[in-house]
Amino acid sequence: QDAWTQAQAAELRRQIDQARADHVPRVAWPGAEVRSWRGALHAMAPPREIPAEWESAWNGESLALPGNAGMLRLLATGRKPDRVGLPPLRVRFRRGGERIKPAGDAHTRELRDLLQDAGIPPWQRARIPLVFDGEALIAVGDLWINAAGMALFESLAARLVWDRAD
Asked: Which of 43, 97, 118, 121 is most buried (most C-beta within 10 Å)?
């Protein structure tokens, strides 16, 4: 076991020493992995796979996300709603090229840039649920919500909550 651990440490050190700036060194073994990102080591259980094309209709009820990515739900704020029911919403994960104009932000931003600027580790970025109304991205988990999404959830006297599982 010590030789295996020493070999893993040596491999991680080699990857860190040779890594490009946009690379996240990673050493894995059954049930665990260690990644190096932004000068820190992150030890964790390997994240479960999320099917690339997974998508679900969402009516605001609790929605268990695949790959142990958590639960998406609406939480009542306690005031009387202005309307009842959601339009048909869809939930899926990143596929690339998504853009959103967060409420209060003057500009539409690429999701990639928002995630990087927020310091969200690369291995977590693909696990954040995206909420769409038609083709419009209205929410990125409960991290960023556009003005239309905010108005919709406020009209329901609810707020969007993403309960993270891992």
From this structure: 121
Distance CA 17, CA 12 (A): 9
Closest CA to 90 of 110, 48, 60, 70: 60
Question: Which pLDDT tens digit goes with each residue over 1-32?
Answer: 455 577 777 776 776 666 665 677 677 777 87
The predicted-structure confidence for 40-91, as pLDDT tens digits, reads as follows: 777 777 788 898 899 999 999 999 999 999 999 999 998 888 877 788 999 9
> Is 129 in contact with 56 (CB distance < 8 Å)?
no
